[in-house]
Each structure stands twice: as C-alpha cells, then as structure tokens.
Design the sequence.
C-alpha cells in the first residue's frame, strides 16, 4: 500500500511536530472559530489571520507547495455553494442580464460575501492541513480521546484511517481485473458493471468489518485507542497555546474597534 495522503509529513522533526496533539487540536479549533466568527468582508482581519497561520506553517518545515495544493482542493466545493450568493444577495447591482425572460442581477454585496466565504474556507483548511501534516493520526486520536471526545467518533476515525487504504487497494485490484477483461461496450453495460463493483465492494467491506470486530473482541478490545508513547503537556505547549490565543484575541479586538 502506497497511500499516505493524510499524515504524509508527520514523521518530520520540528517545533510544531513536537507539540502535544491536544495543544495543536485546541489551537486549530480556536483558529477556525475565530475565522468563522469574524464578520464578513473583514479583509484586514483575514490578512492578519493569514499571517498568524503562516508562522507555524514555516516552523513546521512542511513543503509550502504541499499545503498550497491541498488547500486549493476545497475551493471548487465552496464555489459550488457560494457561486449563487451574488445573484440572491440584495445590494448595489454590479451587472444585470436578461436570460430567457429571467432578469438576473449580480450585486457587489453578494460578490463581497462570496469572497469572504472563500477566504474563511481557505484559512480554515490551511489550519487543518497543518494539523494533519504535523501530527500522526494515532497521536491525534489519542489527543482527541484525552480531550474527552465521543469514544464512538474516535473509534470510527481510527477504523477509517486503518481500512481506507485497504479499500483503496481493493478498488484498484477490482479496476485492474475489470480492465483486463476488455472493459467496454455500451454505456448501460458500463454502468451495470460499475454498479456490480460497488455492490461487491460493500459486501466485502461489511464482511471484513465483522471479521475485524470478532478478532478485536477475542484480543480483549476495551474501546480505548493505544499508542506506544504517552502524551505529556509541556511548557512549550502552554506557550504555543497562549501565543495563539493572544494573537487571535488581538485580531478580533482590533477588528471590533476599527
């Protein structure tokens, strides 16, 4: 299996990598909350938030190209939702057109709101990419458990991380087997074949889940995630969380006053 797309750079050594996962989780959640709660069209605040997140990105030694490429993936999905806002938001009209009897207007307020949504989404996804790139998934799950996250959610994420790669390999083998049989024919035949593959994958996944659960119970599974290293909250973690908190509070206060 060669699918390491979640925590690809988590084995590197940097100041951010050495932080306790609980500190990084709380700091990330605080950053996202501050960005989301910032009033729309606060461009100066968005710029300051970008500066705040840039500092740990540079300290993490994670390639900037990796973070940029992964962060841009979210833009098309956000656009699918936000692209209609300029046409429904009231305000000064920027452009108007009559299309098949429909009068469609584009407003400046709508464009600004769409830009604000894109900025918030991009900043939030950068913080999440930094979190996953500097924290191994088992350590992150351990931190979530220590922070009293719902145990069911932690275990579901654990299983997802462990078996998504196996399912990916299963799909690749099924695709290779399909192509080796000269996959082609009419469109209806292709859809039927893909449907059969999806059904087969679901059945195999369900049966594997039953076998895995039986094996875990036989080995004394008690619902807790296990890691080789214990978590230790150090002075560096406290300084990191305090610095992030002060920076976010300063930006929010500045944005409120000015």
Sequence:
């Amino acid at each position: 299996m060669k699918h390491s797309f979640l925590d690809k750079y988590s084995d590197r050594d940097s100041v951010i990598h050495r932080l306790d996962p609980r500190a990084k989780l709380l700091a990330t959640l605080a950053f996202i909350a501050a960005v989301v709660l910032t009033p729309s069209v606060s461009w100066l605040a968005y710029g300051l938030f970008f500066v705040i997140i840039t500092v740990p990105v540079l300290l993490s030694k994670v390639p900037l190209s990796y973070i940029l490429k992964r962060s841009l993936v979210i833009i098309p999905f956000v656009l699918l939702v936000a692209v209609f806002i300029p046409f429904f938001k009231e305000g000064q009209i920027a452009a108007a057109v009559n299309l098949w009897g429909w009068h469609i207007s584009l407003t400046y307020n709508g464009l600004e709101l769409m830009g604000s949504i894109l900025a918030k989404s991009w900043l939030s996804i950068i913080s999440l990419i930094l979190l996953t790139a500097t924290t191994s998934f088992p350590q992150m799950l351990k931190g979530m458990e220590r922070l009293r996250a719902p145990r069911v959610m932690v275990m579901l994420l654990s299983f997802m991380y462990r078996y998504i790669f196996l399912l990916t390999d299963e799909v690749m083998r099924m695709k290779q087997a399909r192509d080796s049989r000269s996959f082609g024919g009419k469109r209806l035949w292709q859809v039927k074949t893909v449907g059969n593959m999806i059904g087969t994958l679901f059945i195999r996944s369900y049966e594997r889940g039953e076998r895995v659960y039986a094996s875990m119970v036989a080995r004394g599974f008690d619902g807790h995630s296990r890691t080789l290293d214990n978590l230790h909250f150090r002075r560096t973690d406290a300084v990191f969380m305090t610095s992030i908190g002060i920076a976010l509070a300063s930006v929010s206060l500045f944005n409120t006053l000015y």
